[in-house]
Amino acid sequence: MSDISLKEHWNHAWEKQDDTAVSWFQEKPEPSLSLVERYAPDRTSAFVDIGGGASRLVDALLERGFSDLTVLDLSGSSLEIARQRLGERASGVTWIESDVLDWKPDRRFGIWHDRAAFHFLTTPEDQQRYKDLLDSALQPGGILILGTFAPDGPEKCSGLPVCRHDAATISRVLGDGYELVETLAHDHVTPAGRTQHFSYSVFRRS
Description:
The protein is of the alpha/beta class and about 210 residues long. It has 6 helices and 9 strands. The strands form 2 sheets. It has a 7-stranded mixed sheet. A two-stranded antiparallel sheet has the order 6-7.
């Protein structure tokens, strides 16, 4: 699938139904929210949500006083949903419409969160590109929070193949520069009532 058709795929996925009906919807963004609050050095830490789209995580972080928030997503439609929902508060967030692998960040972040993008990278080459980008954008001592489909989770999402992970497989991609500090299993119940097994891993960059 080309970059253009992939972008169209995700825009269509958001536009064809209410954002609360997509399989990945969470009214309360857990365990992401608890993990960010636990590991954020402070509320001024630079935070980026990779593949954040219309996720309610940014709403919850704004409500808790986080002041340096960035949301990146390939789908402009998903970002517009979030901006419309937040209203005036959207001006306090940096919105980036880009494929993560094409992104060229001009700053570093203290917290990198991803519940949506990494498991769609199904080749070692793309996973390495992601890791190289992470190296350039996450500051030393920074926190990486990755939520992916678990080894016994779905093999596809929105009709696209995924690469399922646990802390061990992610550690192999990241290499020695990242220390695993926590891992946990999470059962996500979709709006349709199906249970999807996720694995969350928290790393600290050395």
